[in-house]
Design goal:
Residues 96-114 have a biased composition (Basic and acidic residues). Residues 1-26, 92-128, 337-359 are annotated as: Disordered. Residues 1-20 have a biased composition (Polar residues). The protein has 359 residues and is mainly alpha-helical. It folds into 2 domains: 2-104, no CATH class; 155-338, no CATH class. It is 58% helix and 4% strand. The strands form 2 sheets. It has a two-stranded antiparallel sheet. A two-stranded antiparallel sheet has the order 3-4. Helix 9 (200-208) packs across helix 10 (240-257). The longest helix is centred in the first third of the chain and has 30 residues, at 77-106. The radius of gyration is 48 Å and the shape is rod-shaped. The relative contact order is 0.05.
């Protein structure tokens, strides 16, 4: 209370505590009223009363002092009340700082992870559910319209996933319609090549084939027809040119269905193309067999990627190395066939000796 008394020592001698114009006559509040007001400020600083109650009591004390005094007027009320209001504000700041220091000393530090996570209001949750339901209904209506309209042959783009139409399947016959009909409704991590590796013979035959089995052709109405038939295998992949054509075709097809696999498939083609450059063209059939073995391995393992080069190391040894089982068996078979032919020629073509002719 001594601090507040020191701050109000001018109030008892100067009733306004502010510089007033010279034209106004300055008066002072009596010492008893000032003491009561200072006690209220001190009680507020101790937390005994609220700030609002202190202001009301100070207002009553000052009004009572003005009514009992012959020299004080209502013009003296405002500067006196403002002065005690400043004292209350000062005490309020000190009280807040004391409480903060006490809280920090008594309570342990709280990490951000310990704080309760804010929960969205119910109205926000309702709006989000309504929006999701609206988008779901819109997607279903668009899908129904696309099935009923004459644009059945168009590719429907849904974000990064695509819907494969039946017309596309006749060019890539190894794709199963049931598996890829509604690709857009399937998660990317669930869409794999499990048991659906491309068959290069079917791809090449479908690329060059000009005839379609009419028994497997279906009519969609409105003059549209599609086919899910597989063309008769009439072409085999024998050269690097054939292999490059069919590889581009099935990479294009799978990229259409799985856009996120484009880099993986292109990397696989670059990997195999290097062997066609380094290996003699007479042995390119081994590279084609190696490619087939890699595709079969990927087909048998659900999450094996085409760019997992280290997983194909043993297949590379089997098909491309001279020590491999496949390459060795081919060389052994070729050598035995050549040896039989050469021995036959040698036996049949050599001249008989005099002893053999005479015997």
């Amino acid at each position: 209370m001594s601090d507040n008394a020191g701050m109000t020592q001018t109030l008892s001698s100067n009733p306004t505590s502010e510089v007033q114009p010279a034209s106004k006559v300055q008066h002072k509040f009596d010492q008893a009223s000032v003491t009561k007001c200072l006690k209220l400020v001190d009680d507020f600083g101790k937390g005994l009363i609220s700030k609002g109650d202190a202001l009301l009591e100070i207002q009553l004390i000052l009004q009572s002092a003005i009514g009992e005094s012959d020299s004080l007027t209502q013009q003296d009320f405002k500067p006196g009340f403002t002065h005690f209001l400043q004292l209350l504000d000062h005490a309020s700041g000190d009280l807040s700082s004391d409480k903060e220091r006490g809280r920090n000393a008594n309570e342990p530090e709280r990490r951000e992870s310990d704080l309760p996570s804010p929960r969205p209001c119910s109205s926000a949750i309702i709006k989000e559910r309504e929006l999701r339901s609206k988008l779901r209904r819109q997607n279903l209506s668009e899908e129904d319209e696309s099935d009923e309209s004459g644009d059945e042959h168009e590719y429907i783009l849904r974000g990064k996933r695509r819907k494969l139409t039946s017309e596309r399947l006749q060019f890539y016959p190894w794709l199963e319609p049931k598996q890829y009909r509604h690709v857009s409704h399937q998660k990317a991590e669930e869409l794999t090549l499990d048991w659906r590796a491309p068959d290069l013979k079917k791809v090449l035959s479908g690329h060059y084939s000009t005839s379609i089995d009419p028994k497997q052709t279906q009519s969609l109405g409105k003059g549209f027809e599609i086919t899910l038939s597989q063309p008769t295998t009439t072409h085999k992949v024998k050269t690097f040119g054939d292999w490059s054509i069919v590889t581009d075709l099935w990479i294009e097809a799978l990229t259409f269905i799985m856009p996120w696999k484009e880099d993986e498939l292109r990397s696989y083609k670059r990997y195999l193309s290097g062997f066609f450059i380094d290996v003699h063209y007479a042995l390119h059939s081994r590279i084609i067999d190696f490619d087939k073995a890699c595709r079969l391995k990927i087909e048998g393992q659900k999450y094996l990627r085409f760019d997992s080069i280290s997983k194909f190391r043993h297949l590379k040894v089997s098909h491309l190395s001279s020590l491999g089982m496949v390459a060795y068996s081919e060389l052994h078979q070729l050598g035995s066939t050549t040896g039989d032919k050469s021995s036959g020629k040698f036996t049949g073509g050599r001249k008989k000796s005099r002893f053999e002719s005479s015997g």
